[in-house]
């Protein structure tokens, strides 16, 4: 279809140059060329920008009280009886993935109270806090 349209336009330009005059054919060709160039630029810009990728889905978790993330984790607490008084560690947004691959690998599924991340882990508290006088930690 595009080749046929180009052939028709070319024959029309030749007809204008032959039957009218060469200057008019030149002006018409310039206008058509400019319009075609703008259409090509618009099409290239439209096709040149890929759509934004969808965020990765959270991987499944295996094991009681386990934490697994596709990205970085600032703080993960799976133990009982902890009182946190300091802010969570800050993970830079461009932090490198943890050694050993990403969290997409099934063999690395964390077990009970396990923590796994595709990026960095700032702090992981997996054990129970020491028992205070008369208090018991809940399982």
Please describe the structure with a list of short key phrases separated by commas or semicolons.
rod-shaped, alpha/beta, 139 residues, two-stranded parallel ribbon, 2 domains, two-stranded parallel sheet
The end-to-end distance, rounded to whole angstroms, is: 72 Å
Supply the helix-strand structural class.
Answer: alpha/beta
Helix content: 25-40%
Which stretches are poorly predicted, pLDDT < 50 over at least 5 residues?
Answer: 101-107
Number of domains: 2
Rg (CA only): 33 Å
Number of helices: 2
Give the helices and strands, then pairings.
Blueprint: H1 2-19, H2 22-48, E1 67-69, E2 73-77, E3 115-117, E4 121-125
Parallel strand pairs: 1-3, 2-4
Helix pairs in contact: 1-2
Tell me what the structure shows:
This protein has 139 residues and is an alpha/beta fold. It folds into 2 domains: 2-48; 58-129, no CATH class. Helix content is 32%, strand content 12%. The protein contains 2 helices and 4 strands, in the order H-H-E-E-E-E. It has helices at residues 2-19, 22-48; strands at 67-69, 73-77, 115-117, 121-125. The protein has a two-stranded parallel ribbon with strand order 1-3. A two-stranded parallel ribbon has the order 2-4. Helix 1 (2-19) packs antiparallel against helix 2. The radius of gyration is 33 Å and the shape is rod-shaped. Residues 101-107 have low confidence and may be disordered.
Quick recap:
With 139 residues, the protein is α/β, with parallel strands linked by helices. It is built from two helices and four strands.
